[in-house]
Amino acid sequence: MALVNSFATSNFLDSLASFFIAFVLGTLIGAERQYRQRSGGLRTNVLVAVGAAAFVDIAMRLSGNDGAVRVIAYVVSGVGFLGAGVIMKEGKNVWGLNTAATLWCSAAVGACAGSDLAAEAVALTVFVLAGNTLLRPLVNAINRAPISEKGTEAVYEVRATTDLDRLEAARELIESKLEAAHYPLRGVAVEGRDEGSVELIATLIASAANSEELDDIVVQLERSPSFDHASWTVRSPE
């Protein structure tokens, strides 16, 4: 009887409207992710949005606004764990951060819908879709732009190949050459290669370096009998 007595048509319709709004808006966000063939696609975003709406709506029904605020805090942290499941690391590359952030936003849309903030839920959906679509050409343009080595923070590495018999002498030489050029070292790593050959990777502390100076250091290392080959690279910090 408690189930029947607790039923109120107005409350039920209010909850139904919240779930429907969350479903529709989650579908819009998820459709874009599905079109891009991302791991967190249509159904995932819909379920996150509807689930968040349901939890917040239940809390409002039982404890009012204070209860909804507490549940929203749990939704924020809980969806963070869910988003971590779509993030993958492959070597130095990390994939899925944007999808995880989109799931987080879908939860926010659902929380707005569950809190009866329909207009805010719609507005947030528009911003999420704009971030995933309208900003894409800008991101592509930035990625294609040439990197200014002097104006951009980067990680510089000097790489030189030698063998185990010459390893210690090679390490001392590469350290002395870089120190003489006033490039302090963060460290020198040794990676094994084929048939006893090893590669020394000297990482510079400097966030900017002169390419001509590094070219000159590499030429000096290649002329030395301690090395078979030398080069330098620059990459973005991890």
Automatic annotation (TrEMBL):
Spans through the membrane: 12-30, 42-62, 68-87, 94-111, 117-135
Any one Gene Ontology cellular component term annotated for this protein: plasma membrane
Membrane topology: Multi-pass membrane protein
Pfam short name (any one): MgtC_SapB_C
Residue ranges annotated for the MgtC/SapB/SrpB/YhiD N-terminal domain, each copy included: 20-139
Primary location group: membrane
Localization of this protein: Cell inner membrane; Cell membrane
Occurrences of domain MgtC-like C-terminal (ranges): 156-232
Key words, A-Z: Cell inner membrane, Cell membrane, Membrane, Transmembrane, Transmembrane helix
Keyword Transmembrane assigned: yes
Protein task: Virulence factor required for growth in low Mg(2+) medium and for intramacrophage survival. May be involved in regulating membrane potential by activating Na(+)/K(+)-ATPase.
Family: Belongs to the MgtC/SapB family.
Name under which the protein is recorded: Protein MgtC
Native species: Pseudolabrys taiwanensis
